[in-house]
Structure formats: structure tokens, C-alpha cells
Amino acid sequence: MRFEFIADRPSKVKVFLKSHEISKGLLSKIKFKGGGIWVNGVERNAIHMLEIGDKVEVEIPNETPHETLTPVLFDLDILYEDDHFLVLNKPYGYASIPSMNHTSTIANFIKGYYVKNQYPNQRVHIVTRLDRDTSGVMLFAKHGYAHARLDKQLQRKTIEKRYYALVHGKGKLEQKGEIIAPIARDEDSIITRRVHQSGKYAHTSYEIVEQFGDIYLVDIRLHTGRTHQIRVHFAHIGFPLLGDDLYGGSLDYGIERQALHCHRLVFTNPYLGEELVIESPLPDDFERVRQTLKPNI
């Protein structure tokens, strides 16, 4: 895959390319694994001095796929795709990556899609991962350079993810709220988390979208990314997610998993130079609850 840039200042090629988020590791792959660098049509090395206005072309070699990741054909609901990124509407019930307990995962499905379409790069790069029983928008980079550029956005916290959750509890849930409470591992479990002063800082914002008696559909934004953060924070304030029996959620409303759905993703596509907003509709199990229960007027 070839990329073009115009030098905007005198510098060495490697320094200029670093400003475009091409790392030392990627430069090494370009040098030793079939790539190349050209300046004004002439092949050059990474220490060549650029002048303002020079055209720099970089050929990034195709990546070898993960041989241990088995491709699995699956009917994917793709919300967006171009040469660099793919955004999936993930169904619940599937883990993001394989493990001892999960061998038919979203990563397997994406690999199957790449193989079926004979894409030159068949290595799966997950940018935003979702838990097995969380549905919604999930972002993939289609090559390592694209992944590196989005990692920078993740570090700068400029990628926005918003979630819908159905929560249930007694008492009054304020229309808007900020939940700021540290999250730590449970003392007696390697899976569950808890709010505890020994934990790491965690911040969740929410706003009520609809109310059905003591059940609420809330729109959530994460400011930090702790394990089980939404589930732990809402359980902590007395409004656990429907279906989330791990944290005390009710199983009485036909939801068979934690009622959590990533409905909106906002990121900057660096190759288009524009912000992309990708949205996913409410999943069927959320809609069934909404249709069954009468919203408060």
C-alpha cells in the first residue's frame, strides 16, 4: 500500500515520516520486508534530507496474517468500510478475540471476511474492543499503519464511544449525572470489579433517554476505560444493568445478557482528513423491552 506526502519543512525523511505517525518499527518493515521510500520519484533511504515541497512516497509491505487465527465465515453487519478502516455492528454473545473458552469470535469472522474478499492484508487489527455480551459499534484498522494512527487518537482521548444501557433500581435516578468512583479488582474474584478507594480513577457520564417506571434507558459516555466500568458504576449507585446478574441486575425482563450497546463512534479518518460519525440502532432485545413497557409521560 502506497502513501504520498509533501514535505513542509527541511528534515530527514525519518523525522518527517515520524510526524505522520510512521514509527521506527514500521520504517524497519519498509526497509527489510519489501517496502520502499521515494523522494520526487527517486528511491531514497530514511536519512535523506528533504526540502520544502518534496514529494515523499512510501510503500508499506503487506502484513503476514496471524496463522493461528482461523477464518470463519459469518454474516457481518458492516456499518462503514474503506481501504483503511472497517466498522462492524457487533452482535452480542461473541467474544472479540479467541481464548480457551471462545474459538468462534469476532476476530475469526473478520479474518474470514478478509480471506473471502482476498484482501492483501489479512491481519486483524482491533481498535475498539467490546465484551462478549456487549453489542454495537466496533472499529477495526485494515493495516498496521492505520492502527498506529488510531492508537494516537486513543491516547489523546479523541475517539468518542457512547453506549445505551437499560438500568433498573429503586429510588430516583437523576436526569443527568457524573459517576466518579475508583474501580478495583474484587478480592475474591479474578473476573468481577468493585468500587474501592484502592482502585484506579474512573469517570462515567450519563443522561436519561427514556423512563419506564423504575427502568431507564440511559445514554452513557466513558471518560476512562476500566474493566466493566459501566456495569460497576451503575451497580454502585443502585441501578445495575438489566440482565447483568454478575452485578445484581434483574433477569425479569427478557434480557439475557448485560443490557449494554455501543450506539455511537466518532473518530477522525486521517486519510480523509474528516471526522466520521458511525451509529448503530437499538438491538432487538432492547426494542422488545421498550415495546413491552410503557414509557413515563
Automatic annotation (TrEMBL):
InterPro entries associated with the record: PsdUridine_synth_cat_dom_sf, PsdUridine_synth_RluA-like_CS, PsdUridine_synth_RluC/D, PsdUridine_synth_RsuA/RluA, RluA_PseudoU_synthase
The protein's role, per its UniProt record: Responsible for synthesis of pseudouridine from uracil.
Isomerase recorded as keyword: yes
EC number per UniProt: 5.4.99.-
Origin: domain of life: Bacteria
Catalytic activity: a uridine in RNA = a pseudouridine in RNA
Record SUPFAM superfamilies: Pseudouridine synthase
A Pfam family recorded for this sequence: PseudoU_synth_2
Record keywords, A-Z: Isomerase
GO terms assigned for molecular function: 23S rRNA pseudouridine(1911/1915/1917) synthase activity
UniProt keyword Isomerase present: yes
PROSITE patterns tied to this protein: PSI_RLU
Organism of origin: Streptococcus porcorum
Gene3D superfamilies: Pseudouridine synthase
Family according to the record: Belongs to the pseudouridine synthase RluA family.
Taxonomic placement: Bacteria, Bacillati, Bacillota, Bacilli, Lactobacillales
Full protein name: Pseudouridine synthase
Domain Pseudouridine synthase RsuA/RluA-like: 84-236
